Amino acid sequence: MNIVWIGLSWLFLMHVLCAVLFKLDKRQAFFWIRIISIVLLTQKIIDYGLSWIQSDFTKMPVEYSAITYILFSITFLFNIKFLKTFVTFAAFLSGIGYLITFPFLGAVFIEGNGVFTTVLALINHSLLYIGSILVMRHHLFNAQNRRSILIMTVLVVAFSITMQFFINFENRYLFIYMLLDGRILYNLFHNIDINGFIYLPYNLLIVSIYLGVISIFYKINKKIYNVKTRSEFLLIEKGAIHHEHTV
Questions:
Q1: Is 92 exposed, middle or buried (0-12, 13-18, 19+ CB in 10 A)?
Q2: Do residues 52 and 16 touch, judged by C-beta distance below 8 A?
Q3: Which of 91, 206, 209, 216 satisfies CB 3.0 to 4.6 Å to 132 for a cystine?
Q4: DSSP secondary-structure letter at 25?
């Protein structure tokens, strides 16, 4: 089957699954969020641990999604409140970003990373997406607190940049570094000369897109949460009507 159709089918399946999980109450939803967290954290501890034991420190969580796996997991396993806004946003962005791009770049991912790693990445990003949707379903984030997302984003980027000074990542295909230094432009536009005149508007565009996604995140969160509250109101209303009838 064509990788495009596989990716689109998987994307559709994930949204069907999310629709089913919408029926969970808050206690059940956060139970599954913790299960997702345990799965992701355990997998990453084993993955990174085995590499570090062999002194292979190029397997370092420097990618945005790789850091999100860890932060999302520990946040909901240990109830770290001040991180919840950022990790939910980061999980949403990482998850939906991968799910949307996979149908069109899946073949490239497989060619560069192999089938097993690509499939594992697809599953992990899907878990992040499902986890973020479950959180947004039962928790309404205050859009006025978007500063916490920006602060954590700066810290994540600073961490990734710092790691470059200690570890040689030249033989690894790391999207975050290609994005930060503009190398991704070479893949999109051949023979382009990256200089100050290109680099400045490029970075402004990246920041603008990121801020736009943050706004979209809050709007989706509000919509999902409002659907939940409306459903609960209708159930209460029906219960009240039923109670009056029986009395």
A1: buried
A2: no
A3: 91
A4: -
Is 163 within 8 Å of 123 (Cβ atoms)? no
Torsion, Cα 120 134 76 101, to 10 degrees, reads: 30
Half-sphere exposure of 106 (CA within 13 A, CB side): 22
Mean pLDDT score, 53-82: 95
Decide if 70 contacts 36 (C-beta within 8 A): no
> Within the chain, where are the H helices?
3-21, 26-53, 64-77, 84-113, 115-138, 146-164, 175-180, 184-188, 196-246
pTM: 0.88
Report how far apart, in Å, the C-alpha atoms of 90 and of each of 66, 174, 197 are. Answer: 10, 17, 30
Residue 46 is predicted with a pLDDT of 96
